[in-house]
Amino acid sequence: MAMLPVRPAEARSELRFLACGSVDDGKSTLIGRLINDSVGLLDDQIAALKADSRRFGTVEDGEALDYALLLDGLEAEREQGITIDVAYRFFATSRRAFIVADTPGHVQFTRNMATGASNAELAVLLVDSRKGLVEQTRRHAVIVALLGIRHVVVAVNKVDLVGFSEPRFREIEAAFLAFARPLGFRSIQVIPVSALKGDNVTAPSGGMAWYSGPTLLEHLETVDAVGEPAGAPLRIPVQWINRPNDGFRGIAGTVASGCVHVGGRIVVAGSGQTSTVSRIVTFDGDIERATTGRAVTLTLADELDIVRGDMLAEPQSRPVVTRRLAADLIWMADTPGQAGRSYLLKAGTATVPATLTRMVDVLDVDSLERREQGSLELNAVGRVWIETAHPIAFDAYEENRQTGSLVLIDRATLSTVAAGMIVGSLDQATNVHHQPVDISPTLRAAMKGQQPLVLWLTGLPGAGKSTIANLVERRLVAAGRHTMLLDGDNLRQGLNADLGFDPPARLENVRRVGEVAKILTEAGLIVIVALVSPFRADRARAAALFPEGRFLEIFVDTPPEVCRSRDVKGLYRKAQAGQITNLTGLGQAYEPPEQPALVLRTTGLDADAAAALVFDLVMARN
Length: 622
Hints:
By secondary structure, the chain is of the alpha+beta class. It folds into four domains: about 10-220, Rossmann fold, CATH 3.40.50; about 235-315, Elongation Factor Tu (Ef-tu), domain 3 (Beta Barrel); about 320-425, Translation factors (Elongation Factor Tu (Ef-tu), domain 3, Beta Barrel); about 440-620, 3-Layer(aba) Sandwich (Rossmann fold). It is about 25% helix and about 30% strand. The chain has 15 helices and 29 strands. The chain is flat and about 95 Å long. Residues about 1-10, about 70-85 and about 105-110 have low confidence and may be disordered.
């Protein structure tokens, strides 16, 4: 092997890569061999490895070193001979420093593999020469591509067990290149290796004269796979507000991308407020500028309303801010992901309630075709639509891996159920940003002398929602309150005239009414909504738009037979005649509230008495 020129230590770049592939393909052995043959092991490491090899080793020669044990540190891993957790190792040659993640191959631990891939710049994908491409190999290649890794090394391992066969190697090489063509990798290097014997790991193999390409180490030392995109915009997710005393208020966070400097203009992406950076404070003292990866505390020239989860950016290059987004998810939970289920979404430093509103499709890891499916099973990869309770700031994952990733968390167990890559906003106006105003909702409410509320009356058609809502508003106005009544039928003659009554249209109907109610509460009004809104998830998304205690769900509980007998608008008669489809209570299910603020059982209350109960509830809050 020709010696490569030595670079001075300060000139060495750093490469983060991971080793992945199916179970027992030899990942740990390959990485252990790579580290040993490139930089060597210390005497105490060799002694420990010898002892572990005698106890746990899987190589035929009982005295030979089992390099996999350098990476497999858990007792269960050594006993089973597989990798379970992600093992990170650091080593450096004269040309480059490396951080390597050895990730599990078993399908049960795909979630761990995705974790290891999240910060890598290159993937070493192992393939057993005897087995060729298997499902887990293809799944790992897909996940690597989705996670934004654009450089891949395919290490065709155990070539010694197929007699160093060139035809077998070429067959696997051609199969992978054909499979990976749609995945968009920038470079694919296929290398025949024997991790156990060291062939083509750091030195050329004597048994493969037909192979003239680089060894694994040569390729890792020379591949151009590092560095963020040129001109990446400034992004600083706010970690916390640092107030050690009354005289100091700093915004703490890590620069996710770009550069911040003293005197530079910044914007709070969500609110649109702008200011100038006065100081950049670090543990080592003040600095003039900070770049990607630097933890800083900024002081600003203006007192802005900033909280954990906000994102600071350049005013001329802002992230997307929205509540509706599309994402590719890697599902990591035994319980399938389904539309309508709610989770916590964590993106950067922001954690907000979120709902899967639509399962768009699932990616077939064999054919790379997308097909419709109603749920995401364990280890599945699929595209979904998500709606968050509050707007979040992000970039598309392909533009910025740091600000374009997310995880979904089970709200009950707080366990991670999915890792995701944001595709983009579902809003049409992605280049429109929040414009700050001087008059706040708090001031508008104070001018009216009341606490804004939303009274959301839900129930079956014919339950009496509109009648009760009208009487409630009359009582409130008589008491000097400022109100607005949003009746579902009236809205469907204007704002929502373009919507039908199928579940997706009802979702959009509730979404629009919730957004209008939010605007009206920011004007300081008490808003009364009379809307069937049959699905709990839709009402929960509307409730999430408001501060705690400002959304009062009121269940107008009228039995279905009573609603059908009233049939004040003739809807049930038309539905029974087939003239109306998707009528709630007849052709479509109704999901009653589980914890409403008030239940109005109209079989024992007339409309006036019901309105009085709602009025009393409001006045108690005001």
